[in-house]
Structures are given as structure tokens and as C-alpha cells.
Amino acid sequence: MAASMGNNSDNLRGVKHIILVLSGKGGVGKSTVTTQISLSLVSLGYKVGILDVDLCGPSIPKMLNVDGKDIHQCPQGWLPVYADNNQRLSIMSIGFLLHNKDDAVVWRGPKKNAMIKQFLCDVHWDELDYLVIDTPPGTSDEHISIVENIRQYNPDGAVLVTTPQGVSVNDVRREVTFCKKTKIPVIGIVENMSGFVCPTCQECTNIFSKGGGEALAKQMEVPYLGSIPLDPLLTKSMEDGATDVRPQAVDVIVQKITSYCNSSLESTMDTT
Ligand SMILES: Nc1ncnc2c1ncn2[C@@H]1O[C@H](COP(=O)(O)OP(=O)(O)OP(=O)(O)O)[C@@H](O)[C@H]1O
Ligand code: SF4
Questions:
Q1: 20 to 30 A Cα–Cα from 237, which one of 28, 72, 197, 272?
Q2: Helix, strand, or coil here: 107?
Q3: What is the pLDDT of residue 2?
Q4: Beta carbons within 10 angstroms of residue 98's beta carbon
Q5: Measuring from atom 4 of ligand 2, which residue has the nearest CA?
Q6: C-alpha–C-alpha distance, residues 39 and 104, integer Å
Q7: At a CB cut-off of 8 Å and minimum separation 6, what does 45 contact?
Q8: Could you tell me where the beta strands, DSSP code E, fall in the chain?
Q9: Beta-carbon neighbour count of residue 42 at 10 Å?
Q10: 199 alpha carbon, closest ligand
């Protein structure tokens, strides 16, 4: 891991909006949704940063084809890696800092929490419209650490990712409770892997019962942002680090996220 440095608490000051991406369990597509949301924001002209704090499974660098890049330091902290030629998408991942990909898996809680704190404070993002934070699965001490370290920057809220299966939906229920307890607003729920897109004819077939995320959103009185189907072309593009396949549903979800964030910014300005 890179040399440690002092906490530069001003590094998030130039970030207009902070969004957390949470999921109740692993493998439901949290990193995919983080990446897709970010690419959609960039396509709208925003300057976006992705902070990959998934200590045990940092997958963002591979998905954006910047795996193995070296991290450089400046007086204010670590410099993120650009994932596009126009320098509108910058990435910082715990994966860049680990010599051995299995290191973080064996860390105890306090070491993980210290790492998260340093990671949130010591990355020099400069000016960003959106910082999208990919968190570890579940609701653990690590999540509390993340929330504690960003609270002073008024994060806009959390996007909760679920899949249509009942067990995943139950996990999201816990995430909603976590957000309520930690006073992080829920921007909304995304149902991922909702139906399967046939690679031959592009027909979408529902394998699991559809609509669990929407029903849960209604029940928990939080917004429903939309569903993203399981698309083998998307799996392949994520594996190859390509950024050319973005389901249409993502842009619709991002429209809802940006209008939520703009209205939360307006209401903050009204009260200041
Ligand atoms: N809508 C989708 N269509 C096709 N493939 C998808 C979709 N969502 C996720 N995947 C694939 O499923 C796998 C798991 O996704 P991802 O890594 O985003 O999950 P995760 O919840 O972040 O997992 P982890 O808990 O390990 O961080 C990846 O191979 C990804 O490409
Ligand atoms: S959706 Fe159509 S093209 Fe795809 S596998 Fe089924 S029948 Fe074949």
C-alpha cells in the first residue's frame, strides 16, 4: 500500500454531490450499477469521480480498464486515475493501493476503518460534479465509518441495489433501515438483473418474479428508480473493461438521480 499521509479534510470540498451505492449482499451488481451510473453522468457532461471502497472486492478498475495503474501523490494527497481521454471520469480504488489483492480480506475492523477514513480524506479530487462511492456489501462497521467521514459534506443520499429474488429484497430492507438510522437519505432503489435479455433477439424474459424492488420501495416509502435487465453484452463489456454498452434503463435512472440531487441542492441553498 502507498505511504500513509495526513488527513487532508478539504479534499471533498470541491465535490458538489456525493452518492453512496449500497447493496445488502454481494454479487447483485453494485459495482456495475456504480460504473453505469457514472458513465451516464459523464455522457451528460458532468465531471464524475468513483471511489471504490469495496475493500474485499474492488472491481471498478477492471470494469473501467484501468486495473494495475500506479497511483501518484501530490501535496494534497493521492491523485485519482482518469478512465477517459477527456478527463471527466476519475477513479480511486482500494485495488490500486494493495500489493496483494487478498490483503484487505484479512484485515481486522480497526485497520479497515482507518483505511476507509484515509481513503475518504486523502484523495485529491479537485472539482467534481458527482462523487459516486461503491461500498462493500451489507451494513457493517465499514459503512458506519464511511457515513461518519462524509457526513460533514452533506451527502445527497444512497442508491440501493437489489435483484428480484426475495432474499436480496430482504437485504435491501436492512439497507433502508441502516440509512434511516444513520440519517442518510435514500435516493431510491434500483432492481438489477431484472429479466434476461436474449443475445439473439434482444427479447427480455423475466426469470425471477419481477417488481420486488418496486413493491419494496412502495412499502418502505422510498423512491423506485428503475430496473436494469441482465444483459450478456453488458457482462462482457464489464469484463473487457469496455464502456460502450449502456442499457437505456440506466439513463432513465440517472435522470431521476440528477433531479433528486438538484432538488436537494436547492433545498440546502434555501435553508442557508
Ligand atoms: N445488469 C447486468 N447485466 C449483465 N451482467 C451484470 C449485470 N449486473 C451485474 N452483472 C455482472 O454480474 C457480476 C457481478 O456484478 P458486480 O461485480 O457489479 O456485483 P457487486 O454487487 O458489486 O459484487 P461484489 O459484492 O463482489 O462487490 C459481474 O460479472 C457483472 O458484470
Ligand atoms: S428469446 Fe427468442 S431468440 Fe432468444 S433464445 Fe428465446 S426464442 Fe431464441
A1: 72
A2: coil
A3: 39
A4: 17
A5: 198
A6: 27
A7: 88
A8: 15-23, 48-52, 72-74, 77-79, 81-82, 89-93, 128-134, 157-162, 186-197, 204-205, 224-230
A9: 19
A10: 2
Checking if the pLDDT of 234 tops 80, the result is yes
Question: What is the structure's pLDDT at 117?
Answer: 87
Read off φ and ψ for residue 54, nearest 5 degrees.
Answer: -80, 85
Distance CA(9)–CA(180), nearest Å, equals: 26
Name which of 5-9, 64-68, 127-131, 239-243 the model is least confident about.
5-9
- CA 199 to ligand 2 center in whole angstroms: 8
Question: What is the maximum alpha-carbon separation in the chain?
Answer: 55
Query: Cα 90 to the chain's mean position, in Å?
Result: 13
Distances (CA, A) of 82 to 1, 66, 92: 20, 8, 9
Which of 196, 197, 198 best tests ligand 2's pocket when mutated (most atoms within 8 Å of CB)? 198
C-alpha cell at 7: 488527513
8 A C-beta contact, residue 19 and residue 184: no
DSSP state for residue 139 in the 8-state scheme: S
What domains sit in the chain, N to C, each tagged with a CATH number? 9-270 (3.40.50.300)
Contact 127, 46 (CB under 8 A): no
Centre of ligand 1 to C-alpha 77, Å, is 30
